[in-house]
Amino acid sequence: MRAGIVLFPGINRERDMAIALEHATGHKPRMIWHAEAALPEIDLVVLPGGFSYGDYLRCGAMAAQSPVLRAVRDFADKGGYVLGVCNGFQILVEAGLLPGALLRNASLRFISADCHLRVERSDTVFAGRYQRGQVFRAPMAHGDGNYFADAATLDHLEAEGLIAFRYVTPAGEATAEANRNGSARNIAGIYSENLRVLGLMPHPEDLVDPLAGGTDGKPLFDGLAASLGA
Amino acid sequence: MKVVVTVMLKPEVLDPQGRAIQHALHGLGFTGVSNVRAGKVIELELAESNPAKAKAAAEEMARRLLANIVIEGYRIAVEGG
Which residues lie closer than 8 Å to B29 by C-beta, 6 or more apart? Predict the structure, then answer.
């Protein structure tokens, strides 16, 4: 799998993402500057976390208008695989590659804490190394992760199986307490209609090494490498 | 010509910031305040002298960037227009 990580000014999680991808594939991902109008030959584009353009106007709004996002949109339109984490998820919804929006956390507080995610389906290239219904731990660190969409969009996401992960208790229950940022229907991550674009707020790339406290996020990257070729 | 774009969360979108401001106002003794909503005001200077054209341009800017129409609505006021 040839992966590329897009860098915007203000992005700060690209190195964690690069480590996770290199762990899984055995080689370093390409780094792609936001001013590039074309992507290199790659199988997976990753939009990492951080605070692109200082979160000015709205989180991800500026990055969604950058030259490289036109190339990412073309890549996705042709069936390319795209992963957006945290700010990357915000950029994907601002760019219209995924539906909905990410509002200020309901508590108005920045949340830096571990959460538990339930895998809603495992028959995708992203979740293939997890089991459906499996709960895994992931750190989250965001102020604007409160997923919002109108009721019709939420119903469509559920009916079509496009919800990737939900915030749950360690036992796997989607309660209000487990849903710390206030997301609609406990949604932590969603897929595009063709299941090739995934956006999620928590950071699986932060848990790929026992030295960092666990390997709960490793199956996501191992699954990608297995599906898209090491 | 100067154009002012006001961006507000749609009424059906919960505005926790507005709610926090309202709570603080109640704490200050302004007990008769309700439905506090917080938004953004964006001022633009356009190289355009026709108010209708200025408004149309600002509309396009609001739709494509200044507002996220999934969650926000906008109002446009053209100075002297």
Answer: none
B41 touches A at CB < 8 Å: no
Question: Which amino acid would we find at residue A133?
Answer: G
CA angle A69, A74, A75 (to 5 degrees): 90
For A193-213, the pLDDT digits (tens) are: 999 999 999 999 999 999 999
Separation between Cα atoms, residue A17 and residue B29, nearest integer Å: 49
| pTM metric for this prediction | 0.95
Q: Which one-letter DSSP state was computed for residue A180?
A: T
Question: Which residues lie below 8 Å from residue A152, measured CB to CB, with a gap of 6+?
Answer: none
Is A65 an 8 Å CB contact of chain B? yes
Residues of B in contact with A55 (CB under 8 A): none
Which chain A positions have a beta carbon within 8 Å of B68's beta carbon?
58, 61, 94, 101
Q: How far apart are CA A121 and CA A61, in angstroms?
A: 29
Residue A93 CB burial class (10 angstroms; 0-12, 13-18, ≥19): buried
User: What ipTM was estimated for this complex?
Assistant: 0.86
DSSP 3-state of B70? coil
The H-or-E segment that residue A83 falls in is strand A81-85
Active site residue A86: yes
